[in-house]
Amino acid sequence: MTVPHPLASSEEPVGYDPTAVEAKWRARWAERGTNTTDLNGPRPFYQLMMFPYPSAEGLHIGNLYAFTGNDIHGRFQRQQGHTVLEPLGYDAFGIHSENFALKMGVHPMELIPRNVANFRRQLDRAGLMVDWRRAVDTTDPAYYKWTQWVFLKLYERGLAYKKQAAVNWCPSCKTVLANEQVEGGACERCKTTVEQRALEQWFFRITEYAERLLRNLDWIDWSDSTRMAQRNWLGRSEGAELRFRVLDPLTDAGSAGVMVSQEITSGSTVIPVFTTRPDTIFGATYLVLAPEHPAVEQVTTSEQRAAVEAYRETARKQDIVSRQVNKDKTGVFTGAYAVNPASGEMIPVWTADYVLMGYGTGAIMAVPGHDERDFEFAEKFNLPIPRVVAGPDDNAHTPLAAAYTDDADGRLVNSDQFDGLAVADAKRQVTDWLTQRGAAKPVTSFRLRDWCVSRQRYWGPPIPIIYCDACGTVPVPEKDLPVVLPNVPDYKPDNSGVGPLARHEAFYHAPCPTCGKRARRETDVSDTFLDSAWYFLRYPSVPRDDVPFDAETTKRWLPVSAYIGGNEHAVLHLLYARFINMVMFDAGLVPAEEPFVKFRAHGMIIRDGSKMSKSRGNVVNPDSIMDQWGADTLRTYLMFIGPFEEGGDFRDQSISGVRRFLDRLWASVRDAQADGTPDTDVMRKLHQTIKKVGGDIAALSYNTAIAAMMEYMNALRRGERVPHVAEAAPLVSLVAPFAPHIAEELWEMLGNAGSVFDAGWPTVDEALAREDALELVVQVNGKTRGKVKVPRDVTQDTALAAVQGDVNLAKFLTGPPKKVIYVPGRLLNIVV
RNA sequence: GCCGGGGUGGCGAAACUGGCUAGACGCGAGGGACUUAAAAUCCCUUGGGGGUAACCCCAUCCGGGUUCAAUUCCCGGCCCCGGCACCA
Question: Are A342 and A281 in contact (CB under 8 A)?
């Protein structure tokens, strides 16, 4: 028995029912293979979106916002005749998943597949043009086999190395973190204050690529904000490394207070320092070594040893936060003196924690007169503060109330033969002079550090290394990959500094690949960001299992044509991915140095003025919105909220306007008449709209594209107007990227076979789109007073005559025109 | 502190390289038509002030400036968001 549709039984025509329409087209797309990409198709276009971490909470509206924005762009490119690859996958390894699994008491190997299934269900509803045959899951051995391969590739190229270093240790996550994962001294995940620990860790030599990573930022087509964030992160400074000889307490004994030879003698301890202001060398009145600096031990005199040791011990215990800004300067004198290579003066050597071991050489020359930090330190410890740079209003003797740091207007003073030079010239000349004397070399320093990739956790790809007593560090041969992560019930992290796998003999016992003797596997896993640093290379080659990415396919599909994602990954994922891609490029495995030719950062969706969060209870659940309004309405509404690259404020009430628009679209197509002739004005508006919507989508200006379609809809159905088919039909193609399900249904309703996405983009009739009569804006004394209708290519005189002949405008002309400004096609400004 | 991006109606927001009477489009609000009524739909109004009216004045964070013309350019200031930050 069939239940009559409530509307079907009445006289009323059938209205728009998103639930039915969307279910129908989900099935139809699957049946027809509409979303599967033929990788050999013409004009490849690789549309990439950032793959999600499949959380237990399910799809976040922010995910959907990003995916929809990508999907619209991808669908539009398909309508432009490209073969579009729009893949998606799951970034399912990592601490986040693991912590959640621990909390729930469910093993990640059980939990993750569940989450993935739920994500897949939600994503299916969203109407994305994703080719699911190419999905990747980073936790699948078939995927992480190649993540391990990437590690080995770097190892092979000398870019992966193990060292003992002071690393960021999160006591809550019980693992080390990369610098990129520490925010203001706290773990970016759990906000716990990070400690310093000396551990042996695997690092990637990303610093070797710093210069290239920076240089390419000049030309890649990326959002400015993202490029700037990377520039700041890389932190390039140009300057010089200056060498300071420390006086030997034995041979130079008794010379304190006496000017010593300006010659730099070899054989003694030499402290290199990095400075961006070599011009201020004459004002360097003391040296400072970081407490961890190895030379501290060498130079400290016996009298000062106890004090220095105590200070270093305190510094060692300190966490990173308490060494941050605004802290009072502390430090101790080592008892040693060094020679200023420019002035020949003896200057004391201090150790202080305001100097960081990780940057430059871990030592500085202090110029209190021209550096704020040195000034503060010198004041506190009563060290001399000479002036060596004078501003336009100062002379050599003007006292310094604060450090004078301006390097644009200053000139050198109290600097012997360099007096009078501008800072910029002095930087160069002083460096040259000191270089000739063997006391300097020009260097460039980066803020970027090497990428620490070891994690003392369970839920990641095991690092494919074996340690053999006889052969040393041996990489796992490619044929033995993957090193499978074992399913063990005991996977809790501990404080030992090694990963949980170190507790599982069955895992770590392995024969040495070289000599076959009993050896031990590395038990740390790699950083999740390694999984996502190469996933875009994998998609086109899924499901090949003999190579990570097929050479021919990769050449055809890489680099990525358009990548749209969140800016929170500006210095994490996006930097790592560029680095890994660059390494692969150097290895001849990928066709381009830069993986993402075009990247756009989208904005963030907030709700009712504030960030969505569980604690605020203002999280939007995509499922319930889709239940109530339909996926097409949600998609279109998300894009209508505000500029895609800026984000917007989700307001439940406002969504009704978008639904109304789709209802009206439905009714327009349903009721459209094929008889008669279309209205010329409406047709003109149509062609103007086709043009505008196309331009706006290409520029990701989705909100104005939707506004333009709504505006056209208002013209189409002005009053109780019944549109002509020729007026209504093309609108279906324009709406399609935003609301794909309803578009397909209406496309079919119009009598078309096949998918609207394979039918191309409507052609703009430029002649029709152009207005033949022009409304020229008329200003009098710069104030707009009205418009006159004139022919398109009117001359200034004719236009002026038209104004004078118009009663409403002529009255503003209180005198003869003194001056007339005519902007053809735009306006006429008459000055009287 | 340095570097990016912003500040426009009750709200989300438009306005291409300075130029179509700033505020498109949508939400909300008010009024009307249809209806026994409601919903839905359709129409009108909606930055502020003044005027019976045609109209006039003010208004794009604040203060100056350039220009025939400024939301748009320049100088100075305030505020918000994001990145970096004892990085020498």
Answer: yes
Q: What is the three-class DSSP state of A564?
A: strand
Distance in Å, residue A637 CA to nucleotide B26 C1'? 10
Tokens of A742: 């309803």
Beta-ladder partners of A273: A242
Cα–Cα–Cα angle for A631, A633, A635, rounded to 5 degrees: 65
Q: Give, in Å, how far the C1' of B79 lies from the CA of A610.
A: 18
φ, ψ for residue A479, nearest 5 deg: -65, -20
Please answer whether residues A32 and A39 qualify as being in contact, where contact means their C-beta atoms are separated by less than 8 angstroms.
no
Reply yes or no on whether the pLDDT at A802 is more than 50: yes
- Work out the angle at residue A208's Cα, subtended by the Cα atoms of residues A206 and A212, and round it to the nearest 5 degrees: 90
Point out the nucleotide closest to A331 (alpha carbon to C1′): B86
Structure tokens at A558: 């890489």
Nucleotide nearest to A715 (CA to C1'): B25
Q: Determine the pLDDT at residue A614.
A: 77
With CA atoms as reference, report the closest residue to A631 among A641, A639, A622, A642: A622
**pLDDT tens digits along A356-376:** 988 999 999 999 999 999 999
pLDDT digits (tens, 9 = 90+) for A507-535: 999 999 999 999 999 999 999 999 999 99
**Strand, coil or helix: what is A343?**
coil
Alpha carbon A12 to its chain's center: 52
Neighbours of A374 (CB within 10 A): 27
The 10 Å Cβ neighbour count of residue A12 is 9
Residues 6+ apart with CB under 8 A from A29: A35, A755
Q: What's the CA gap between A481 and A464, in Å, rounded?
A: 8
Nucleotide nearest to A275 (CA to C1'): B88
Residues in chain A: 832
Pairing of strands A509-511, A518-521: antiparallel
> A519: which residues sit within 8 A by CB, 6+ positions away?
A466, A467, A468, A469, A471, A474, A510, A511, A512
Predicted pLDDT at A194: 79
Q: Are A341 and A348 in contact (CB under 8 A)?
A: no
Q: How many CB atoms lie within 10 A of CB A372?
A: 12
* CA of residue A573 to C1' of nucleotide B14, angstroms: 35
Helix (H, G, I), strand (E, B) or coil at A809: helix
pLDDT tens digits, residue range A461-520?
999 999 999 999 999 999 999 999 999 999 999 888 889 999 999 999 999 999 999 999
Give the CA A782 to C1' B55 distance in Å.
19
Strands A44-49, A83-85: pairing is parallel
**With contact defined as beta carbons under 8 Å apart, do A92 and A108 qualify?**
no
Distance in Å from B44's C1' to A644's CA comes to 33
Tokens of A825: 């096609």
Minimum-distance nucleotide, CA of A359 to C1': B87
If 0-12 CB within 10 Å is exposed, 13-18 middle and 19+ buried, where does residue A36 land?
A: middle
Distance measured from the CA of protein residue A780 to the C1' of nucleotide B20, in angstroms: 15
Chain B nucleotides with an atom closer than 7 Å to a protein C-beta: 2-5, 11-15, 19-22, 24-28, 40-43, 55-56, 68-70, 82-88
Compute the half-sphere exposure of residue A739: CA atoms within 13 Å on the CB side of its CA: 31
Count CA atoms within 13 Å of residue A283 on its CB side.
29
Q: Which residue has the tokens 């093993």?
A: A107
State how far the Cα of A743 lies from the Cα of A736, in Å rounded to an integer: 5
Instruction: Please name the nucleotide lying closest to A644, CA to C1'.
Output: B13
DSSP E strand boundaries for A262-366: 270-275, 286-289, 332-339, 346-351, 363-366
C1' (B64) to CA (A800) span, angstroms: 35
Q: CA-to-CA distance for A639 and A635, rounded, in angstroms?
A: 6
**Cα distance between residue A713 and residue A718, in whole Å:** 8
Nucleotide nearest to A721 (CA to C1'): B42
Q: What tokens were used for A465?
A: 């290394």
